[in-house]
Amino acid sequence: MAMPPSHSSALAGASSSPSASSSCSSSSSSGAAVIGLIRDRDSSSSALDHQQSKRRQPPAPAIDEDDAPSARIPAAAAAAAAAPAKDSLAYAEILLSRSKFADAQLLYKSVLEAEPSCVQALVSKGVCLQMQGNARQALECFASALKLDPSNARALTQCGILYKEEGHLLEASEAYQKALQADPKYKPALESLAVVLTDIGTSLKLSGNVHDGMQKYFEALRADATYAPAFYNLGVVYSEMLQYDTALNCYEKAAAHRPMYAEAYCNMGVIYKNRGDLDAAIACYERCLAVSPNFEIAKNNMAIALTDLGTKVKLEGNIHQGVAYYKKALLYNWHYADAMYNLGVAYGEMLKFDMAVVMYELALHFNPQCAEACNNLGVIYKDRDNLDRAVECYQMALTIKPDFSQSLNNLGVVYTVQGKMDSASAMIEKAILANPSYAEAYNNLGVLHRDAGNIYLAIEAYERCLRIDSDSRNAGQNRLLAMNYIYEDEDKLYHAHRDWGKRFLRLYSPYTTWSNSKEPDRPLTIGYISPDYFTHSVSYFIEAPLMHHDYSNYRVVVYSAVVKADAKTQRFKDAVLKNGGMWKEVYGIDEKKVAALVREDNVDILVELTGHTANNKLGVMACRPAPLQATWIGYPNTTGLATIDYRFTDSLADPPDTRQRHVEELVRLPGCFLCYTPSAEAGPIVQAPALTNGFVTFGSFNNLAKITPRVVRVWARILCAVPTARLVVKCKPFCCDGIRDKFLAKFEELGVQPMRLDLLPLILLNHDHMQAYSFMDISLDTFPYAGTTTTCESLYMGIPCVTMAGKVHANNVGVTLLSQVGLCNLIARTEDEYVKKAVDLASDVSKLSALRTGLRDRMLKSQLCNGPSFVQGLEAAYRTLWQRYCQGIVPSLVRLRDDQADGTHSDNTNWVNGFKPTANGFGSAIISDTRTR
């Protein structure tokens, strides 16, 4: 019952952002924007506004002295004009201070008519003209004043302001410095000099002369030690020089001298954010927005910080708080694609896939270049079996980012699932070329080789993955599964599993005490955990326990990790609930949390049904949440986990003298360790095709990994011995011409013409799959990894199967299945015997036809399909194991106390009333769908 291998698809995940770049990848939040250098926008003030300067209202037109009608002089001003020059000057100064420039100008005119050498009037008149936009006449007034008083600080300062407004910064600086030579403490000159020196520094810095620019900022601060923009611009320069402590100090001083300095708070937030102090960054952005609520840069930076904080708390395990932060980020920037993207990641992890799809699509709407969102949409569609849509999404991602290794990998995964091996290989090789350290791509390459039947290449690829990432669970388990196909050395395979188990257990802290009552005969709680409660190979063997348990004495709790439920899932669930059991969905839930749930449910015996195949929950078993734990059905070997006490099997699959070693203690059920429930969609048995064809058709529907070179040689011998016979083989990769050609070539090299083989690809509908057995007269089993579900299916469709006994469980599953239906004569011990049995069976078509007609009834009447009887035996086994536990016999606790023990536990006792064992690998290798996080 081998399943397809495990691949790795990449899902884009939650992102933390770099400080100044926008990316929608594993760290997808855009970087916080830093506000750059600031120039003074208003030379008449020592305080600088932010980049978006507040422009003054357009100045009133200057009034020329000769054109000003006396009617414009208000009554009080007219009276002042008629008064002595001294009084007129005082009144004009009052008007100037109140910004009544035109009226003040008229008074200054009258003063100067009376006293042409009045320096104060000349300077003030120049100010009036300057404020009305008449720079030329203003400069003439200042020049006249300076002829009378060359050291007039006020006139020099106003000249400097005019020069600055015209962009003549050096001339302005010289004017301010002359003013200060005349009056070193003249505050307007000091403040204005600080402004112009800061602007000179900015010009130098922007031209690439950072050092001289900084010196000008320092000079500005020597002129005015409270000039906030100089501190601010120094902060910008130090930030660019990565001297963040000094930069932060400068921003803090800028904010101290100008408490409404929004830009300083904003850039402080950027520094804190880049340091990872998101709380401090958010506090700075809040202060910034309190000062300037519509400051878009700060709002965007706040959205970035909140998104990163959401990712941080999510990675710490608080996914709901993370979602809250992502949503809050969108309040500050409603079109922030990274927050939407990260919401999509979070919703995906919460299994809210519809909401995840909405968020990814919104992220793409606002950022069409977000390849990661395309990638993650593809993973969701792939998990929903919408493979065509998944391919579209991955291709869209690759249009945006041609070397996007995760999407290349994921596209290869879909092609592998579809059996398009050539296309899959091309994509995965491209993923590795784009990112040679991409461990999971090697894992998926291994799955690809495994599906193509190249087991040694598969193992090599898994090991390359493990060399890059020694903790790769997918590759580690896939490697173990693959080793079963080429079983060469019992000890080597055992130690590989045992070593894996030891490493894996380091990630968990197993429970060692339980509150379960040690009453040997009380009703027991049995837990079954599996991802395969749907139309899957394992489901045909777990159905009997779910349907036929004595629910009055055995409380059944099903932990379902099914990725995509189907009608069979619902039928199982309905039956369990109707009988009083419990059904709990655990797909996507952290395994440690699932273990805690098992413990809360007071499960007495927890049985896992997957082993090292796809979507397994061995992490739950590693936590040891139940007093007793067992493995059954899904895997043909030991799990290697010291926390699992027992493994169910039988005396034919694992004979008492077996040399195969197991960490678990073997529980041999009488009869067969499996109970098969046939598909209701199988349809009737048709007559043997040999009767109408005139030739016998051999066949196998096992996967290519099981059809080893040794198997091919034996099958070729059979075909050569029966020259008229044909061989039909069905497996997924045969939709690929390259795989078909290679397979046919193997037989041609052994003397079998390709025209004698019929190669069928995957058949999706179960009814059609079962009816495909009608092409077959005789089923040929594989070795050393025998079929399980395929053997049961062929028997149910009336087709006898020739199998090979061997040294290990995987090899002997066919032995126990055929023994149950009375076909022991078709069990071979050697290759020669296998060939002879197949040839002899093909030589008598009448006998073959008669066998076909009665085989289904024979099977249905056997213990292999007797659900109630099988479950009675299984329950008897559970009871015996529990009674042993009550006596203090707990195999796993012994192993956990002495992890150096070799783990060989083969208890050959057949427990009371025989149980029907487990075995065989339904091994889906673990595909690594890579989501971008």
TrEMBL record:
Enzyme Commission number(s) of this protein: 2.4.1.255
Major location (coarse): nucleus
Stretches assigned to the O-GlcNAc transferase C-terminal domain: 510-674, 691-872
Location of the protein in the cell: Nucleus
Metal-binding recorded as keyword: no
Keywords in alphabetical order: Gibberellin signaling pathway, Glycosyltransferase, Nucleus, Repeat, TPR repeat, Transferase
Pathway listed: Protein modification; protein glycosylation
Gene Ontology molecular function terms on file: protein O-acetylglucosaminyltransferase activity
GO annotation, biological process: gibberellic acid mediated signaling pathway
Enzyme class: transferase
One GO cellular component term noted in the UniProt record for this chain: nucleus
Span list, region Disordered: 1-30, 42-67
Family affiliation: Belongs to the glycosyltransferase 41 family. O-GlcNAc transferase subfamily.
PANTHER family in UniProt: PROTEIN O-GLCNAC TRANSFERASE (PTHR44835:SF1), UDP-N-ACETYLGLUCOSAMINE--PEPTIDE N-ACETYLGLUCOSAMINYLTRANSFERASE SPINDLY-RELATED (PTHR44835)
UniProt name for this protein: Probable UDP-N-acetylglucosamine--peptide N-acetylglucosaminyltransferase SPINDLY
